[in-house]
Amino acid sequence: MRTPIIAGNWKLHMNPKQTTEFVAAVKDKLPEASKVEALICAPAVDLESLANAAAGTNLRVGAENAYFEDEGAFTGETSPKVLKEMGMNYCIIGHSERRGYFHETDEEINKKAKALFANGVTPIICCGESLETREANKQEDWVVSQIKAALAGLSADQVSSLVIAYEPIWAIGTGKTASSDQAEEMCKTIRDTVKDLYNEETAENVRIQYGGSVNPGNVKELMAKPDIDGGLVGGASLKPDSFLELVNYQD
Ligand SMILES: O=C(CO)COP(=O)(O)O
């Protein structure tokens, strides 16, 4: 059985003080980690506060990006080794905003996945098509190619343990959610791709999130789909009440 994973991606929001206050507001109302993993991925400048506030609670913690080298002359980058030292459980890589605004390539995302594994941090690998690609009905080819590139050279055990987030770009921050059927269709395609690349067991183990305007009103319907194991949530993860409604969607 795959444990559902609902993650907030705070993007470039929140400061260390707000981070501490947020965790204080949610920490006693989180689900058991064996029932639903509740995760916050925060900006690098907030991670120390996040780790300190979340210690001893059911909240899992993560970063929004990392570099593929542990150290060196790479001004402005974040070390995966230090993320591990700080207690990070997860790190998002390949978010469409990083691919779009910061020109990250599939090859870099693959290197980042390997660097995170080398340090014992679990990657959340994002994929998803633009509106233009969907309108041309090329979304499956697009996403399958992103997944193949991101997973290149990873072992079946590694892929079993990681998280893939399907986030159609046209549904991010737009209030326009993919229908639960559209989301399920692509998450199933991703699982089938993992099965083709690896084996049935790996495909059954890998957890696949949907992201794009997930909110307390649509989370239940999305989570009811057989191939959707979680949500990667931007805007609706920024307020404690809304985050709690999301992670406690089963209640
Ligand atoms: O990009 C997202 C999460 O990574 C989705 O953002 P929204 O939930 O704000 O649409």
* CATH homologous superfamily assignment: Aldolase class I
Uncertain spans, ≥5 residues at pLDDT below 50?
A: none
Spatial order of the strands in the main sheet?
1-2-3-4-5-6-7-8
Proportion in helices: 40-55%
CATH architecture, please?
Alpha-Beta Barrel
Q: Based on helices, strands and strand pairing, what is the structural class? A: alpha/beta
Radius of gyration: 17 Å
Give the class-level CATH name. Alpha Beta
Q: What percent of residues are in strands?
A: 15-25%
Query: Which topology does CATH recognise?
Result: TIM Barrel
Q: How would you state the average pLDDT, rounded?
A: 97
Which molecules are bound besides the chains?
A: 1,3-dihydroxyacetonephosphate
Shape: globular
Strand count, sense and barrel status of the largest sheet are:
8 strands, parallel, barrel
Q: Give the SSE string.
A: EHEHEHEHHEHHHEHHEHEH
